[in-house]
Write a structure and sequence with these properties.
Helix content: 40-55%
Radius of gyration: 34 Å
Number of helices: 25
Distance between the termini: 36 Å
Structural class: alpha/beta
Number of strands: 13
Length: 648
């Protein structure tokens, strides 16, 4: 197409070139800009926007920052529109504005979808948005991923209709050959980058949207996969859909797949809008630049809008203004801009003449169905990752045998029986508290999936939270059961089923508190690294007022508040009461009467005198500990709902 890079401005014959350009422009430009005429107004998806300006900050505050300035354009069924520009030009901002996803700024101008002002809800109903990053549950297959998306979004469709739609999407996107392949993770090989991108597109296509927005669909792909994705998008447009996407530094054969382009300068102004194949005509005839053959149009255009007054040769400085600013000012008064306005007016007039009945809004899936789909999806993904489960079970067995062998059949004497029993109970409780740090990954790894799917209207935060937690929680409780079942009898704690039962219950509650606390941290921490620092620190602080490392009555005044918020203190106290209540410990024989044992010591007395624990507070400790677990879960849900949103 074009290769290399060349640009030159001849200021001496500029007037001559402009005169020649005036001859070229005229009616030819009007025909060229409308060379890809919109389909009939009976087809939905005619999008137009005029004089869009977008800024951050309140107007008149002095801190206003304009991101976009006077952007105009359109895209109709059967067309693709590529948004080009240097980094920071506002490509993604414009895309988000067209998709009604901007939340922080304020815009002025006119946005019309099929002649009506679009809303976020309307675009959720009839459109799709493909994010730049491709995130999936790696142990699901391609077909399962699309089917779960269809089940969450096509509430009115029968199972047969949903499955037929999924098969159709697989065929359209060229993914039928990997239908049953696992997507893959960072440790397990799966789909290629291009296949993952097409799968991301497929998740939006299951609803058969009339308009599709894509944020830099070729980022991170090699040249072959990038071209494959763009050709796939062209085929989708030819089927009657409207496609709008931002793109960064496309190569020449990708540029050929564009129908329309919007070229933005680094200041957010529009340097060109129109057919991609006529962009070089505008550069030559409109801007008076000479374009040598074999130039990649995309590279050439981006080089132009990035040229500042200090860059390039003297001929390119244009009397102290940047080339991008020069192109923007040239375009505003050109026949290309007039032709764009004329085409938009024709589209709107055609829409008024051909009124159609807007489709009924797509009914959202019920809360229970959302919960069920999310839960079954999470369960299937977990069951297909047996290595993690086997490793955790092995660790639980190893530590149980290790502790059981160290404290094997703990002594029933006062000394060292008290120290050993209290020490092993403290360690068992501490193991339960720290063993759930792995749950930090639950919402951190799935955060991008949650944000994307909730933004698309697939489910409510409550459905996702409950479904995900209920499918993940049994595993930590399984590890806890294995550990306690082995360690309890090897250590030789009270050998009756009543004490063993309550020991299991207390261990579950301690694990639940630790699990809930880690979920809470993972829902507000910005990254796994930070969450992995916060959670252990909080747990260590909760160990201090447990009554084992330091007597609760001896805590400094400024740290006594910790004993009221420490779930570990209540859990450890409950374990101690369960073990020592009713326990008789023998004293060592006197050195003067080695064959006569001393008077037995009751465990209840030891609890009060040595540890300052109240033996009657067992159920209160258990209830407070369980209440804290529920409280942490509630805080985690609030953070997931209100903090984990799109940052636009």
């Amino acid at each position: 197409f074009f290769f290399g890079s060349a640009m030159s401005v001849s200021t001496s014959n500029k007037k001559t070139m402009e005169a020649e350009a005036a001859v070229i422009i005229g009616d030819k430009v009007l025909r060229d800009v409308a060379s890809a005429p919109p389909k009939t107004a009976s087809e939905r998806g005619h999008y137009s926007w005029q004089d869009l300006t977008y800024h951050l900050g309140a107007q008149g505050s002095g801190n206003t920052k304009k991101i976009l300035k006077g952007v105009t354009g359109y895209c109709c069924p059967g067309q693709t529109l590529a948004i080009l520009g240097p980094s920071g030009a506002g490509k993604t901002t414009l895309l988000d504005l067209l998709a009604c996803r901007n939340k922080k700024g304020v815009y002025t101008g006119e946005l019309l979808l099929d002649g009506k002002e679009p809303t976020r809800a309307a675009l959720k109903n009839c459109g799709g948005y493909v994010l730049q990053d491709d995130v999936f549950l790696g142990f699901l297959s391609v077909w399962e991923t699309l089917n779960y998306s269809a089940r969450l979004r096509l509430a009115d469709a029968s199972p047969f209709e949903r499955e037929s739609r999924v098969d159709e999407v697989l065929s359209v996107l060229g993914l039928s050959h990997v239908r049953d392949s696992r997507i893959g993770t960072q440790f397990i090989r799966g789909l290629s980058g291009g296949e993952k991108k097409r799968l991301s597109i497929g998740q939006e296509l299951v609803t058969n949207p009339i308009i599709l927005f894509l944020d830099e669909p070729t980022t991170g792909l090699d040249s072959y996969n990038a071209l494959s994705v763009m050709r796939c998008l062209s085929r989708l447009a030819q089927s009657g859909k409207t496609l709008i996407y931002s793109i960064h530094q496309p190569r020449s054969n990708i540029f050929q797949t564009f129908d329309l382009i919007t070229l933005l300068t680094d200041s957010g102004q529009m340097a060109y809008f129109g057919p991609a194949k006529k962009s070089m005509d505008f550069v030559q005839a409109g801007c008076g630049l000479k374009v040598e053959p074999y130039v990649n149009p995309a590279d050439y255009l981006l080089d132009l809008v990035c040229t500042t007054p200090a860059d390039g040769d003297d001929d390119q400085r244009l009397d102290g203004i940047g080339m991008g600013q020069h192109m923007a000012s040239t375009y505003r008064g050109s026949e290309w801009a007039i032709a764009t306005e004329k085409t938009i007016n024709e589209i709107l007039a055609d829409l008024k003449r051909n009124q159609y009945e807007a489709p009924m809004p797509r009914r959202s899936t019920g809360r229970f169905m959302q919960f069920w789909v999310v839960a079954s999806r999470a369960m299937k993904n977990n069951l297909r990752n047996p290595l993690k489960t086997l490793v955790m079970i092995s660790i639980s067995v190893f530590f149980a045998l290790l502790i059981g062998s160290i404290y094997y059949q703990v002594s029933n004497n006062v000394n060292p029986g008290i120290q050993n029993r209290a020490g092993v109970l403290f360690f068992l409780a501490m193991n339960g508290a720290f063993s759930n740090l792995g749950s930090l990954e639950l919402f951190l790894e799935g955060r991008n999936i949650f944000v994307r799917e909730r933004a698309a209207g697939m489910y409510k935060a409550s459905s996702y939270f409950v479904g995900t937690v209920l499918m993940d929680l049994p595993l930590p409780l399984l590890y806890c059961s294995i550990f306690t079942g082995i360690a309890y009898w090897m250590i030789g704690l009270q050998a009756n089923w009543h004490c063993f039962f309550w020991y299991i219950v207390i261990s579950y509650v301690i694990n639940m508190c630790s699990y809930s606390l880690c979920l809470f941290v993972s829902c507000f921490a910005p990254s796994f690294a930070i969450a992995n620092l916060i959670a252990p620190l909080v747990i260590v602080m909760f160990l201090l007022p447990s009554g084992f490392l330091v007597n609760i009555a001896d805590l400094p005044v400024y740290w006594r508040w910790l004993k009221y918020v420490s779930f570990f203190r209540y859990g450890f106290e409950a374990l101690m009461i369960n073990e020592f209540s009713g326990l008789e410990l023998t004293t060592n024989p006197s050195k003067f009467a080695p064959h006569r044992p001393g008077k037995p010591v009751m465990g209840d007395d030891i609890l009060e005198e040595r540890f300052n624990f109240d033996p009657s507070g067992f159920y209160a400790d258990l209830g407070i500990c369980a209440g804290q677990a529920m409280l942490y879960l509630f805080f985690a849900f609030l953070c997931l709902t209100f903090l984990q949103k799109e940052t636009r």
